[in-house]
Amino acid sequence: MTAQDCAERVRDLMYAEDSAAQALGIRIDAIAPGEASLSMRVQAHMANGHRICHGGFIFTLADTAFAYSCNSYNQRCVASAAAIDFIAAAQVDDVLYATASEVSRGRRNGVYDVRVTRQDGQLIAVFRGRSASIKGQFFETE
Amino acid sequence: MTAQDCAERVRDLMYAEDSAAQALGIRIDAIAPGEASLSMRVQAHMANGHRICHGGFIFTLADTAFAYSCNSYNQRCVASAAAIDFIAAAQVDDVLYATASEVSRGRRNGVYDVRVTRQDGQLIAVFRGRSASIKGQFFETE
Amino acid sequence: MTAQDCAERVRDLMYAEDSAAQALGIRIDAIAPGEASLSMRVQAHMANGHRICHGGFIFTLADTAFAYSCNSYNQRCVASAAAIDFIAAAQVDDVLYATASEVSRGRRNGVYDVRVTRQDGQLIAVFRGRSASIKGQFFETE
Amino acid sequence: MTAQDCAERVRDLMYAEDSAAQALGIRIDAIAPGEASLSMRVQAHMANGHRICHGGFIFTLADTAFAYSCNSYNQRCVASAAAIDFIAAAQVDDVLYATASEVSRGRRNGVYDVRVTRQDGQLIAVFRGRSASIKGQFFETE
């Protein structure tokens, strides 16, 4: 099994269980070892008290891209920490794109960067997440 | 009008517009100048591909507590950056409590800390947000 | 041996090897399990191109307080990540005080907060560090 | 005056005042608008209580690269916040290279990324800094 096959299989198994991504309408547009590209349309229920997209949903999209990239090796990982810088606001009906790439990956921990952009290419946010390996795999390997 | 009256009025006006907080079932349990306490029950649609609460929703709860605390002076503020450390996982049906307090508040920027705990007191996450003032108020002051 | 005795012994052994803290004139004013209070006078060579204390030295003081607090259990730890928010500038000859406290401590990782204040009580910076255990102890325990 | 000329002139004026960079032996190897490459040899006085380079000095090098990149437009800026992830340890006599690049730059705030590597190309740390404009320029423009 190639690393790319592995990443695709994890994506399928992970997404099937991923109620949050499904409920938010997040799509996994591309996957590769240590990389993932996702998209999400900002829905009306994601607006906050300023009537712009709640930063929590921008974070959630980025965090989901992070999760698909760091889990792509079939070793379960979770975020131990994450940080986000918000660059520009997003509005309802904007489509947001999150692209995750691997900065570093060790036995127990990894660091991943995610850029979130809008349909017109405007940078919306940058996210950096730290992964920690936990027990378990998505599928058994012989 | 006292600072406490101001904070309560902002909370009411902000929450009425806050589709995200409403849709997530977030409750504003307490408010004071620079402080806010919120709670949220983890719902099934908040579970991720590991079947635990997606970190994005823990972040969103914390970010919402941050927003109510930093906006409590009736000067509109948004998050320019935020960081979260995840301490323990939350499960579906857990009730999460987020308590925001002010670390520092300047003319343009502020720093706020949020602790997220579970119904049994276990610390779930710590969040630190940076606020930036934007134009506008929630209500006019004479 | 009490936890307090352990913390004090680690402090002594660690400081004896700590060329950086010594060279910067950092003093370990107090130590306890998971806690440390340090101080440092801002020297002329710590000024940056704006003629104020270089943020790197404020970070270094905070990071040192973090190190003494997370190593106080005689299990060697290093920082895997840290973040700092700068609140106010420090000038040459200011005395800075860094107080570290434990937010969370697990088997492998911990989270520690450090507040840096000035001689007049003004908050200068807040720091949050993540510790990771590495192999080794400062002294053998039977 | 071109943007590149401006960046070089700021570098010269800033470095002449930058006691910290000079005292640490930091060299400004390259400068461009929004970008800077620096290097520093890890000296014996930079070792911490584990006998490896104190993270504070790795941060200081990265923060200095950040400072030269964000000030390169001749508008004075300081760091309002910064975060660092430590990937690998550095030893005394290692030479560290810090390369800063601009993620985003607005009227008041910017975001800059810095990668710190070792002489053999090993990634040592990644740093992300937030700049805030303050009053003043390094040289007068007519």
Structure at a glance:
The structure is a homotetramer of 142-residue chains. Chain A is an alpha+beta fold.
What does it look like?
The structure is a homotetramer of 142-residue chains. The model of chain A has no long low-confidence stretch (mean pLDDT 96). Chain A is of the alpha+beta class and 142 residues long. Chain A has a single domain (3-133), classed as Hotdog Thioesterase (Thiol Ester Dehydrase, Chain A). Helix content of chain A is 25%, strand content 39%. The longest helix of chain A has 16 residues, at 55-70. A 6-stranded antiparallel sheet of chain A has the order 1-2-4-5-6-3. The interface between A and D is small, with 11 and 11 residues.
Key features of this structure:
homotetramer; Thiol Ester Dehydrase, Chain A; 3 helices; 6 strands; 142 residues
Distance between the termini of chain A: 11 Å
CATH topology of chain A: Thiol Ester Dehydrase, Chain A
**Helix-strand topology string of chain A:** HHEEHEEEE
Assembly category: homotetramer
Largest sheet of chain A: 6 strands, antiparallel
What low-confidence regions of chain A span 5 or more consecutive residues with pLDDT below 50?
none
Write the layout of secondary structure elements.
Four copies of one chain form a homotetramer.
Chain A: H1 3-17, H2 19-23, E1 27-32, E2 35-41, H3 55-70, E3 77-86, E4 95-105, E5 109-118, E6 123-133
Antiparallel strand pairs in A: 1-2, 2-4, 3-6, 4-5, 5-6
